[in-house]
Amino acid sequence: DTKENISDIFPRGLSQARKNQPNTSASSDPDTEQSPHFQPHIHSTRRSVKNSNIRDVCDKVRTWKLQFNGKTDATEFLEKLYELQEKSNISTAELLPALFEVFQGNALAWYRNNRDSWTTWGEFLTDFKLFYLPV
User: What share of the chain has pLDDT > 90, as a percent?
Assistant: First the structure.
């Protein structure tokens, strides 16, 4: 009987892996990085995300009934997430702290274990792709 710790399953080393990846984007801002699989809707004005607004965003995200458990198609998940985010007029800065609403199981453990290392949507997206869409 072997018990695994969350940190054994989902290492915190993704930020190091991100640093080792070649930068193929012409943009120096990872928040505006374009991807063939996911093109986030970025609002031209950046807003600070206030606690009351986070609650509102979480409530909205919960109504989407979008879920990702790590076993389903990651590309399809990102595309649907983009569509819902754009339709709801939620910025990526607002969506980032509300993502726990869409993750389940091992994917939720991965999110919880890595969320403190993300300060931008681009950082999350890079780590998500490294883990769920390996080359």
Answer: 59
